[in-house]
């Protein structure tokens, strides 16, 4: 379930902070696809968007490509992602964020 909230970021939330625009919209939709049943929090902050889920988040290249309608190199996401919350692991096909205390 996609939820747009103005200020909520729980300490257990993880995920990317992305520059606002078409890519951020595609990533938010892809996160919802890649994490079925999870409550996705999208917090718009003007120039950037926080996209967070509780404790673990998976984002795949295939889901982003599905939403932007063309091939996409996940490494290019870093240029649009000035920050993230949690630990991050990445490969050419997916990025995972997770919470470790």
Structural features, described:
By secondary structure, this protein is of the alpha+beta class. It has a single domain, classed as Monooxygenase component MmoB/DmpM (Phenol Hydroxylase P2 Protein, Alpha-Beta Complex), CATH 3.90.56.10. It has helices at 22-34, 61-68, 77-80, and strands at 2-4, 13-19, 40-44, 48-54, 56-60, 83-85, 87-90, 94-98. Strands 1-3-4-2-6 form a five-stranded mixed β-sheet, with helices on one face. A three-stranded antiparallel β-sheet has the order 5-8-7. Strand 3 (40-44) and strand 4 (48-54) form a beta hairpin. The longest helix is centred in the first third of the chain and has 13 residues, at 22-34. The protein starts with a strand and ends with a strand.
Question: How is this fold's topology laid out?
Answer:
Blueprint: E1 2-4, E2 13-19, H1 22-34, E3 40-44, E4 48-54, E5 56-60, H2 61-68, H3 77-80, E6 83-85, E7 87-90, E8 94-98
Parallel strand pairs: 1-3
Antiparallel strand pairs: 2-4, 2-6, 3-4, 5-8, 7-8
Helix pairs in contact: 1-2
Strand content: 35-45%
**Unreliably modeled segments:** 1-6
* Overall pLDDT metric: 91
Helix content: 10-25%
Q: What's the tally of helices?
A: 3
CATH topology: Phenol Hydroxylase P2 Protein
Strand order of the largest sheet: 1-3-4-2-6
Q: What general form does the structure show?
A: globular
The overall number of domains is 1
| CATH architecture title | Alpha-Beta Complex
Q: Report the major sheet.
A: 5 strands, mixed
Provide the CATH superfamily: Monooxygenase component MmoB/DmpM
For the record, what CATH class applies?
Alpha Beta
* Run of helices and strands: EEHEEEHHEEE
């Amino acid at each position: 379930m996609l939820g747009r909230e103005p200020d909520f970021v729980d300490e257990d939330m993880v995920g990317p902070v992305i520059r606002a625009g078409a890519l951020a919209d595609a990533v938010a939709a892809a996160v919802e696809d890649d994490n079925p049943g999870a409550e996705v929090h999208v917090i718009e902050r003007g120039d950037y968007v926080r996209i967070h889920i509780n404790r673990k988040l998976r984002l795949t290249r295939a889901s982003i490509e599905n939403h932007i309608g063309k091939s996409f190199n996940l490494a290019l996401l870093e240029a649009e992602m000035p920050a993230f919350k949690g630990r991050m692991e990445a490969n050419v096909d997916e990025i995972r964020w997770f919470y470790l205390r």
